[in-house]
Amino acid sequence: MRQKLRLVLAEDQVMLLEAFAALLSLEPDFDIVGTARDGSEALTLVRAHRPDILLTDIEMPEMGGIELAETLHAMRAHTVVVIVTTFARAGYLKRALNAGVRGYLLKDAPVAQLSDALRNIGRGGRAIDPLLAQQVWDAAQDPLNPRDRAILRMVESGRSSEQIASLFDLSPGTLRNCFSDIIQKIGARNRVEASRIARQNGWL
């Protein structure tokens, strides 16, 4: 008898997490070994259970799907990451692939398609939403580095310059230079527009 695929599921929306767990548990060749509501909890479960696949959303509290993939890749973990999201943006997909993600699927796909994708990934394959995969070739290159992204997320959250400088242990002048560099990279008029453009392109 073929060994079951061991899965950890991570999703911050409880109803959706429970739905995924219930539906995938019906598959005879899947074993749900843990569920998490944020990235930190997901990482703890992966370390504890060493599942074959971590099925995760791209945006969650503590740590998102791409950051989880980067962390697991750096750890040389056995677990591979599959992202299921509402964000049909080529920029997100590019970042996910660069982080070593093996699957990128949309939440409006049928459950049977998700199950088949997980089986394919369990056999060493990949599963990428086909329409989104076509968009990657024409997508703009992500100009941001990890600190740029972290700073723009602070802008999105409404933090003041003083708060951002304190969080990143930067002087006011250094932070102004960071904002200027980010704005120039993106081609925006100000930090708020830079944040909006980055989010639209899937760079955040």
UniProtKB/TrEMBL annotation:
Keywords: DNA-binding, Phosphoprotein. SUPFAM superfamilies: C-terminal effector domain of the bipartite response regulators, CheY-like. The keyword Metal-binding does not apply. Residues 137-202 form the HTH luxR-type domain. Residues 6-122 form the Response regulatory domain. InterPro entries: CheY-like_superfamily (IPR011006), Sig_transdc_resp-reg_C-effctor (IPR016032), Sig_transdc_resp-reg_receiver (IPR001789), Tscrpt_reg_LuxR_C (IPR000792), WalR-like (IPR039420), WH-like_DNA-bd_sf (IPR036388). It holds the Pfam family GerE. The modification 4-aspartylphosphate is found at residue 57. The keyword Lipid metabolism does not apply. PANTHER family: TRANSCRIPTIONAL REGULATORY PROTEIN DESR, TWO-COMPONENT RESPONSE REGULATOR. This is Two component response regulator. It comes from Asaia krungthepensis NRIC 0535.
